Amino acid sequence: MSTLRDIRATVREVFRDEVSVSSEKDRLEILEERHQIQLTYFFSKASCDSRETTHVKLRFHPDRAEMWLGALEVASPYRSRGIGREIARAVEVIAQRLGIREINLFPLFRSGPFWQKLGYGEHRGRAARVLSKTVVPARSCSRL
Fold first, then answer.
1. Res 126 pLDDT > 60
2. CA 53 – CA 37 distance, rounded (Å)
3. What is the pLDDT at residue 143?
4. Residue 29 maps to which CATH number?
5. Residue 50: CB partners within 8 Å, gap ≥ 6?
6. How far apart (Å, rounded) are the C-alpha atoms in residues 31 and 56?
């Protein structure tokens, strides 16, 4: 089970290394509740102002080894540049490093094809339309 400190450090490190619009001015907001951790990461280089930001919202359930992607929004002047894809792939790296096996999301009507291109598929057995992706755990390298 990942701690809040592990999650915070991993999120900052992965977004810094994997997302081209990441910067030292990025902002991370965390809300810790009973059985989940909600996190919003704001990318300052790809945001226009406080009303139009590039950000991702994640909800972790460490005891269940799953993550919910609540939102991934790219400010309109920065769209169609691959930034959303970079952020989505970075979220998968975060999941791998934290030992999370599944990422779930409720896609907006128009965003379904975007997520399907990234390998997310319909999750059967849910009442609402949920897309999921199984994450292959990161392998640690050991020297012989």
1. no
2. 21
3. 42
4. 3.40.630
5. none
6. 14
